[in-house]
Design brief:
Rossmann fold; four-stranded mixed beta sheet; two-stranded antiparallel ribbon; 12 helices; binds S-adenosylmethionine
Length: 302
C-alpha cells in the first residue's frame, strides 16, 4: 500500500473503498461453491510507527457490508522478507521485522469447495517414528484437552493436515521468467508471489478443469501455477509491460531473438491474438513444490 509509485494505488484512506469495489464484482462472477483468496501485506501509517488496520477493515467490511464469509484466515510467513520500514526496524530498532501477510480466504457460502487432503504436508520427525513403530512410540489415551487419540492416529494418511500458517520463503531468483526479462531488458515484477502460495490454494480449493481468476496478476504467477495444475485461468493486469513479460512464464522459445520479438509484439498498443510458443510442461513449477504431498496432486496440463 505504501508502494503507491509501484502499484498506482490510491491513498491509504481510500484504498479500502477501492478494494471493496473489486470485491463486489468478484462476488458477482464467483460460483456459489467458489472461494476468493486475498493476500494483503501489512503496512505502517505514514511517518509513524503505528500499524494501519486496512487489511482488517477490508475483511470486516467485506463480511459486514458485502455478505462474504470468512472461511478461514491464513498467515503467509515469508522468513526471507527484508526488514521494513528501515526507519523503525533498522535505524531506530523499535519494531520487529514484519514477515507475515494476512491471507483472507473468503467464500459466498459456509461450504465452499475445499479438500485439505490435497495439500497435506510432510509428517513431523516424531510422527514418522510413530508411523514406523507405533507400539513403541504410542499408546492410545485421552488427552487433557479431551481429545480422544485413538489407534487410528497412528495410521499413515499420506501426510499431516497443514496449519493456517504458511511458511513459504520468497527466494526465487533464476526462473525462466527472470531469465527472459533480463534478456529483453525489463525488470522482473517487484512483488511476485512464490509459486507455492497460489499452489496451496489452487490445490486446496479447486479441481482440475476449474477456473482460477487473478484480478491483480502482476507477473501471473497464479496463472502459471493454475496451468501447471490443469486448471483454466484468467489474468487481469493493468500494467502492459508486466503483462507482456508474464508471457515468459509460458514461453518455450529456443532463440533469444524470437523472445525479444515476442516481447516487442506483446508490448505494442494494438497487440491482440498473439499466440505464445508454449512449453509443453512446466516441470520447474512442480519441482519446487516439495512441501505439499504429491500423492493427490495432478499432472501438469499440456
Ligand atoms: C502485488 S502485485 C501482484 C503480483 C503477482 N501476485 C505476481 O506474482 O506477480 C499487484 C498488481 O496489481 C496490478 N493492478 C493494480 N491495479 C489494478 C487494476 N485496477 N486492474 C488490474 N491490475 C491492477 C498492479 O499493476 C500490480 O502488478
Amino acid at each position: 500500500m505504501q508502494r503507491k509509485k509501484e502499484y498506482g494505488n490510491v491513498d491509504q484512506d481510500e484504498y479500502v473503498d477501492w478494494l471493496l469495489s473489486f470485491a463486489v464484482e468478484i462476488r458477482r462472477v464467483l460460483k456459489s461453491t467458489g472461494s476468493f483468496v486475498l493476500d494483503l501485506g501489512g503496512a505502517y501509517r505514514k511517518g509513524r510507527p503505528v500499524r494501519s488496520l486496512y487489511n482488517y477493515r477490508v475483511l470486516i467490511r467485506m463480511c459486514d457490508e458485502l455478505g462474504w464469509n470468512l472461511a478461514e484466515e491464513f498467515f503467509w510467513f515469508n522468513p526471507s522478507k527484508l526488514p521494513s520500514p528501515i526507519e523503525w526496524v533498522n535505524k531506530r530498532k523499535i519494531r520487529a521485522k514484519d514477515a507475515v501477510n494476512t491471507v483472507w480466504w473468503l467464500s459466498k457460502t459456509a461450504f465452499p469447495k475445499a479438500d485439505i487432503t490435497k495439500v497435506l504436508v510432510s509428517y513431523s520427525e516424531r510422527m514418522k517414528l510413530l508411523l514406523q513403530n507405533s507400539d513403541r512410540y504410542y499408546s492410545p489415551k485421552k488427552r487433557p484437552s479431551g481429545h480422544n487419540i485413538s489407534r487410528r492416529f497412528s495410521e499413515d494418511k499420506g501426510g499431516a493436515i497443514p496449519s493456517n500458517l504458511l511458511l513459504i520463503p520468497n527466494t526465487e531468483s533464476n526462473s525462466r521468467y527472470l531469465r527472459y526479462c533480463r534478456l529483453v531488458g525489463v525488470a522482473g515484477h517487484p512483488a511476485r508471489f512464490p509459486e507455492k502460495l497460489p499452489e496451496f490454494f489452487i490445490r486446496f480449493l479447486t479441481d482440475v478443469g476449474d477456473t482460477v481468476l487473478d484480478i491483480f496478476a502482476g507477473s501471473n504467477t497464479t496463472g502459471a501455477v493454475a496451468e501447471a495444475l490443469g486448471r483454466r485461468w484468467i489474468a487481469f493486469e493493468i500494467n502492459r509491460s508486466y503483462l507482456a513479460a508474464s508471457a515468459f512464464r509460458f514461453y518455450d522459445g529456443a532463440q533469444d531473438d524470437a523472445a525479444k520479438d515476442l516481447y516487442a509484439r506483446l508490448i505494442a498498443e494494438d497487440a491482440k491474438g498473439i499466440v505464445i510458443p508454449q512449453a509443453k510442461t512446466q516441470p520447474y513449477l512442480l519441482e519446487g513444490t516439495g512441501e505439499y504431498k504429491t500423492a493427490h496432486s495432478h499432472k501438469a496440463a499440456g
